Amino acid sequence: MSSDAAVDAPVLIAGGGLVGLSTAMFLGQHGVPSIMVERLASVSPLPRAAFFHMRTLELFRSAGIEDAVVDGSRRDFVPDGSIVLMDTVSGRKLGDIIGDLNAGVDAVSPCRRIFLNQPSLEPILAERARRGGATLIREHEVADVSQDDQGVSLTIRHVETGRERLLRGKYLVGADGAHSRVRDALGIGRSGRPVFSNSITIYFTADLSPWLADQPVSIVYVKNPALSGFFRMNRAQTSGFLVINTIGDPGVDPEAAANAAGDIREATLVGHVRTGVGVPDLPVRIDGVSRWRATAEVASQFRSGRVFLAGDAAHVMPPNGGFGGNTGIHDAHNLAWKLALCLDGHGGEALLDSYDAERRPASHFTVEQAFARYVTRSAPWLQVTPPLAPLAPDFDIEIGYVYRSGAVLADSGGPLGHTDPRTSFGAPGTRLPHVWVERRGQRVSTLDLSTSFLVIAGPRGGRWCDAARAIPRPTVDACTIGQDVTELGVSVTDALGMTDTGATLVRPDGFVAWRAATLAERPEVALEAVLERVLN
């Protein structure tokens, strides 16, 4: 296709699952239409990827779907809950992994962690994406990818008829999963920890309420001589899934133990569920099974020209901690506003480069943390080289990762890698701290103040806000503490590490781009110079 060919949509998205739909939804927030290409004919009925972290709910909140997501969660699952380790579901508790999923969350976020099945979530994402200008093409797979100075050409093929068609866009997001054809077409490799288990997920119907109905339990890890894995059940405790990573005694035959997927006959699967529950004659119906190779790997690059990788196409990790889907959604949110600004002519190549510079280190960190949880919870016998990373607190992983790129003007001596969000104090590169304030008579979080660039000024720094409002493009919102927003018992200046005349520049993704200690002599010049550096 010639470089001046018509564009079907500004952004093409390979993959119409969790991450692809999220990408389209976030693009739509910024007025950018997209076309998604999905291999499946419909949403999978299997209850996959159900644990969503507070940062993900914050992003859903910004997109206007938090209430719908929370309502779905309340229908499907017991709220809060715990994660416990048992020998069997009906047997003896071996320990508590997490006592309460939302302990301490209210102090750092306006949102709470929830469980929700993907079949319940994806229609919510799809409808919001559609309203933002997205189109979803189902039953098609990626056949070829090419790009030039003007855009990307994506050849897609109908999975049954083999008929091909050509799509043209300015940019392409590869959100087509762990076996990404987009990544393969670009020749991008992965590194990390290769296959350490041929695992299975067994979807089943069985009544576990006699043992779980009166317990606020969200996930039950089971570890006994026959198997190691975990159960997640619905609110009624009558259906769910069992993930199995190892079978038998790894000390006797490590290779056989790590091959849980070696036998997936129905009788064997029924036996696994019964063994995990600890009831030999439990009535069990198998609803489905998926085989997957447990790995912990990250792509060598997240950007190649006009093509970007997100979600499992960019990083794969074991499910322990539920970080995989959440990390992919965070990829999508980070990328969407940058693409939007570049399409509008306000952002440059350096802004697009910041996607890789920010999301790849954050993904490395998260992948290693997921792997460390896999080993400590399910496979302590595993010989690990290089050594395990020390276990970081969940808060640090979910909302404490720190960005370093050209889109962040960092303080000298600021935090690196990750930090405790309760003590980040609005340092550049960290997520804006959550503080409740009052705006126009309503109680809102500082995270609710804008989805564009935002200047927050101290009580005597109003001239920063005047300068922000005078910038014609891109849109920069502004608020002065004590004038536009009222503190509700907590000092916003203290929480953000600001002075009364200082200012903080927050990016559209809620991360701090820059902070001024005091009022500049010419704030309009200073602010325009900062934006120029962040965007280009």
Task: Give a verbal description of the structure.
By secondary structure, the chain is α+β, with helices and mostly antiparallel strands. It has 3 domains: 9-77 and 116-191 and 300-378, FAD/NAD(P)-binding domain, CATH 3.50.50; 196-292, D-Amino Acid Oxidase, subunit A, domain 2 (D-Amino Acid Oxidase, Chain A, domain 2); 432-535, Glutaredoxin (3-Layer(aba) Sandwich). 29% of the residues lie in helices and 27% in strands. The chain has 14 helices and 25 strands. The protein has helices spanning 18-29, 54-63, 66-76, 118-131, 181-186, 209-212, 254-257, 266-277, 323-343, 349-378, 394-399, 462-470, 492-495, 523-535, and strands at residues 9-14, 34-38, 51-52, 82-86, 93-98, 114-115, 134-138, 140-147, 152-158, 164-174, 190-205, 217-223, 227-233, 239-247, 285-299, 303-304, 307-309, 315-316, 436-439, 442-445, 453-457, 476-480, 486-487, 503-506, 512-516. Strands 1, 2, 7, 8, 9, 10, 16 and 17 form an 8-stranded mixed sheet that branches. An 8-stranded mixed sheet has the order 5-4-12-13-14-11-15-18, with helices on both faces. A 4-stranded mixed sheet has the order 22-21-24-25, with helices on one face. Strand 13 (227-233) and strand 14 (239-247) form a beta hairpin. Helix 1 (18-29) packs parallel to helix 4 and helix 12 packs across helix 14 (523-535). The longest helix has 30 residues, at 349-378. It is globular and about 75 Å long. The model has no long low-confidence stretch (mean pLDDT 94).
